[in-house]
Write a structure and sequence with these properties.
The chain has helices at residues 10-24, 30-35, 37-47, 84-95, 108-116; strands at 2-4, 49-55, 58-66, 69-75, 98-104, 120-126, 133-140. It is an alpha+beta fold. The protein has a 4-stranded antiparallel sheet, with helices on both faces. It is globular and about 40 Å long. It starts with a strand and ends with a strand.
């Protein structure tokens, strides 16, 4: 079930973000992601429109929109490959006519997922926080 994020969801959402970030970005030191937890808690989540996917076990994934930017979309590693990411992304697509995102160039599985969902690469840049190349992608309805 998809629903709006509630403040009491914060610990589950942060755990999903941290574990999925470390798994998807093995080329970035885990300490980097751990150092961003408080920014996620205190800055990014409160500033974003966030929706969660909840199943019988709790929250399995979430996405956050900041204006027309898909700032985050993460599924708990144990639930990946079960359609939750697609459900989250389809929900986000219903909320905006255009979506923008960035994804690390080394994250081939996520790039493939976004391309299958209709996103196209618009530009390549370097992430100022990690120094790794990333792709800027866009979706239009």
């Amino acid at each position: 079930m998809l629903r709006n994020y509630r403040p009491e969801d914060v610990d589950q959402v942060l755990q999903i973000w941290l574990s999925a970030s470390i798994q998807a970005h093995s080329f970035v030191e885990p300490a980097f992601w751990e150092s961003k937890l408080e920014d996620m808690r205190n800055l990014y989540l409160p500033a974003s429109e966030t929706r969660v996917f909840e199943n019988a076990s709790g929250i399995a994934g979430f996405y956050s929109l900041f204006n027309d930017t898909l700032a985050a979309i993460f599924v708990s590693p144990e639930y990946q490959g079960k359609g939750i990411g697609t459900a989250l992304l389809n929900d986000a697509k219903c909320k905006r006519q255009t979506l923008h995102l960035t994804v690390y160039k080394a994250n081939r599985s996520s790039i493939s997922f976004y391309e299958k969902q209709g996103f196209v690469v618009m530009d390549e840049q370097v992430d100022e926080h990690t120094g790794y190349p990333e792709l800027a992608m866009e979706y239009r309805t």
